[in-house]
What does this fold into?
Amino acid sequence: MNAEVHDTDVLVVGGGAAGMYAAAEARRAGARVTLVDKSLVGRGGATVMAQMTVAAALGHAEPDSWVEHYEDTVTSGRGLTDELLAALLCHDAPRRILESWERGVNWERDGDGLAQVLAPGHRRARCCYVGSLQTGHGVVRGLRKELRRQQVTGVDTTMVTDLIRDGDRVVGAAALDVKRGEPVAIWAPAVILACGGLTEAFARNSASYNMTGDAYGLALRAGADLIDMEMVQFFPIANLAPRTVGLDPIMWDPFRYRLGGRLLNGDGREFLETYTGVADEGTYTASRDMVTYAILEEVAAGRGSPNGGVYLDFTDLTLETMREAFPTAIDRLLEQGIDISRRPVEVAPTAHYTIGGVTVDVDLRTSVEGLFAAGEAVGGQHGANRLSGNAISEAFVYGARAGQVAARHARAVGHGRSATASQAMDSATGEVAGVRGRCRDSGVFLPALRAELQQLMWTHVGPLRDADGLEQTRQQLGALRRALHEDARVDARHSFNLEWAEWFALRNLLDSSEAVRLSAASRLESRGAHQRRDHATADDRFRAHAVTSRGSDGTLVLTWRPPRSLDGEPQAWSPPEPLATPTAGAGP
It folds into this structure.
């Protein structure tokens, strides 16, 4: 199969908020931009599913400053925050929120300003939102308008499978056009990875089916570093029972912002104060890592709800009060026979957000020339726990910065490439073509491989971890990787062959899952989102980033690096003895 060839200045991989913002800013800077998404631009990924709030120190609800937002972010990070990246996020967030408002994001208004509410972990009411559970849709609508104004080329149903290097720099990418069923060669002197998130690695998760760790797999195979991959945020109060249809499992978060509600264990008692030292009492102020830990401990102690979670109780409110705040959601619940004014619901943690990610500098450059990252693909800025409301803020801020810097880089280096790079592109597009039709009569079914991976990761690398489970995971990940490369069945069809795309998605999931496992096995402590049964307390020897890279033999290698201070220098850190690294599994 001959690959279709594209040539552009900046290639943006991923069509969520970070990717759309990056594409718009690169185009405004004069670059030719190609924005690709393996689903539909603005319709796949995490942004469109977001219902909650977006943090920015606008000061519209009460006096506020980016410095206070920064301090709250660093406090939430449990000693692992890259302070330089956190400062960029908090300093630029107000500008980007107001800019997005001008571009068409219909933020909820309060008089002449934007409505802002208090969210967990924040000292000020600084979190904006769109309508009633409509933040993600509102953001996507506004950014799509800006892309049309900037005349950005958007390419749907195209999955980037590998990045192409020319010596030490990235010069393009190989891809699969799922709609037409053919490989694609995209030449670009600057590539932005905005397709982060690996929550599909877990059996219980709140994100899109498309969140398969593509940014991390692509970055590793291109030679870039990953940071703090063990830090996966588990959203504490995702819906567990009764089952709902057509409603986001994390819908209870905005309910708690607006209505309060109480978290109760199976005995009907509030329990958060035992773990946090502060009574919840409907105030919803505890951070996500603490609430997740508290719920899991209550369940482990036999004080959980019948389905293995805890209760979220709104029964002290009238149905009319709740319908006034969330009319559409309440009516959908009632249609399904669920009246939360009469009975509590059961909630439990679910994989929600990848805190770790690709290592970048303050200009969103990775360790590989020509390769940038934005949004959830980036690691370090949240430390060990992401502060509520910072996800879309970082998508806007990092997307904008990455787009601007990538455009300048493309202008500076031009489009030259060597014969070696052309050979690498031919090899990568040839691999895309070669996957189609593998073992189609007797091979292993790809959805079965994904389900096995998800259950493995949830059981042993989920909210609570220990050495035995992490070692079992290492061995079983190796077996799953062999099954994918040697025995997996891929249909021989061309157009809309979803098994073809699934093979590459599973490769990324397995590669990024091994990075999570290795980092989790290496961090012999509990800190923020990373909780170990066998190392239940924080240990200052590990107040450092776990950095994962690809060794010369293809296996993953882990090293330690202290977080950056606000001045860009490493923070003081000196472990008393060398830290052993557990055996690495086969890498990407």
